[in-house]
Amino acid sequence: MIAFRTLPDDHPDLMRSPLLRGALLTLQYAQEHGSIGLTQTKAFKRVFVHWAVENFEVPLDL
Predict the structure, then answer these.
(1) Of the candidates 31, 22, 29, 13, which has an alpha carbon nearest to the alpha carbon of residue 57?
(2) Among candidate residues 39, 37, 61, the one with its CA nearest the CA of residue 51
(3) Nearest by Cα to 53 from 34, 29, 31
(4) What does the alpha-carbon distance between residue 52 and residue 48 come to, in Å, rounded to a whole number?
(5) Residue 40: which residues within 8 A CB-CB, separation 6 or more?
(6) Per-position DSSP letters for the chain, written without gaps between them
(7) Cα 33 to Cα 51: distance, rounded to the nearest angstrom
(8) Residue 62's pLDDT band (boundaries 50, 70, 90)?
(9) Structure confidence by residue, pLDDT tens digits, 3-57
(10) Which of 19, 35, 37, 56 is in Cβ range 3.0-4.6 Å of 45 for a Cys bridge?
């Protein structure tokens, strides 16, 4: 079994985590805008997707 290490909230490695950055940005968006709208098929609405494209730092060499 993998043993996980617990990091303090201010550990510098956490700010390099793309998953954590994306989660924080998404939660901040929801807090500022009230929610993240969904389409009838349960996809994110375009207004959020456009915002995410502009604000998430995604490497171009994927």
Answers:
(1) 22
(2) 37
(3) 29
(4) 6
(5) none
(6) -PPPPP--TT-GGGGG-HHHHHHHHHHHHHHHHS---B-TTSPBPHHHHHHHHHHS---TT-
(7) 12
(8) low
(9) 988 889 888 888 788 888 889 999 999 999 999 999 999 999 999 999 999 998 7
(10) 37
